[in-house]
Amino acid sequence: MTETAVRETLASLAQEAVKLRFSGSFPDSSASPKDVLNYLIDARQRADRVEGIYVQLLSVRGKLARKAGAVNAIAEEAWMTALTTVKGSTVVSRTDSFTAPRERYADADLATLTEKRAARQATDLLSVADEASDIVKTALRGLNDTINDLKVWIRSLQFQSHIEM
Questions:
Q1: Has residue 57 been placed in a domain?
Q2: Residue 75, in any domain of the structure
Q3: What would the pLDDT profile of 5-34 be if each residue is shown by its tens digit?
Q4: Which of 48, 49, 94, 139 has the fewest CB atoms nearer than 10 Å to its CB?
Q5: 32 phi and psi, to 5 degrees?
Q6: Confidence of residue 165 (pLDDT cuts 50, 70, 90)
Q7: Domain encompassing residue 67
Q8: Read out DSSP for the chain?
Q9: Is residue 19 part of a domain?
Q10: Count of structural domains within the chain
């Protein structure tokens, strides 16, 4: 899967979770226990789907984290190899006898630009996955709070009907 496809998939899943979080409504204050129960069932179904999305995102995020770690390790090893090569070469600098450490680092940076760019891209993609995961987690938490509110409402309606008898 390309980076663009991964970004689009992550954005799509996060958008679906937000839509599911805010697509439901709350019953009015005169709703019967059966009406409130129907709202509860709808909220539970939406929460189940958001939970499924969250599990999907965690899987994608784990794969991206492993890939970012591997790409970062490759970049770091390439930089160290380039630094060792630069250190061992007989480069004559402007002073004719001394190459400053910063110059060697700059040469190693230039030699490993491709690897460092790949590492930055992998880290950036992981950041996008983290953001999508946070969005979905927040949507799931909100749906669970709604479910709890509806449960409390049903209990209070049951209590009121019991008192009225």
A1: yes
A2: yes
A3: 999 999 999 999 999 999 988 888 888 888
A4: 94
A5: -80, 165
A6: low
A7: 34-164
A8: --HHHHHHHHHHHHHHHHHHHHH-----TT--HHHHHHHHHHHHHHHHHHHHHHHHHHHHHHHHHHHHHHHHHHHHHHHHHHHHHHHHS----TTSS---HHHHHHHHHHHTHHHHHHHHHHHHHHHHHHHHHHHHHHHHHHHHHHHHHHHHHHHHHHHHHHHH-
A9: no
A10: 1
Measure the CA–CA gap between 155 and 75, rounded to whole angstroms.
Answer: 59
pLDDT confidence of residue 120: 96
Number of residues written out for the chain: 165
Residue 20 in tokens: 């599911």
Give the pair of three-digit tokens for residue 34: 């059966």
Reported as a single tens digit per residue, the pLDDT across 56-85 is 999 999 999 999 999 999 999 999 999 888
∠ CA(62), CA(64), CA(69), 5° rounding?
A: 95
Q: Let me know if residue 16 belongs to a domain.
A: no
Residue 100 pLDDT level (bands cut at 50, 70, 90): confident
Residue whose pair of structure tokens reads 């230039």 in the numeric block: 110
pLDDT at 90: 56
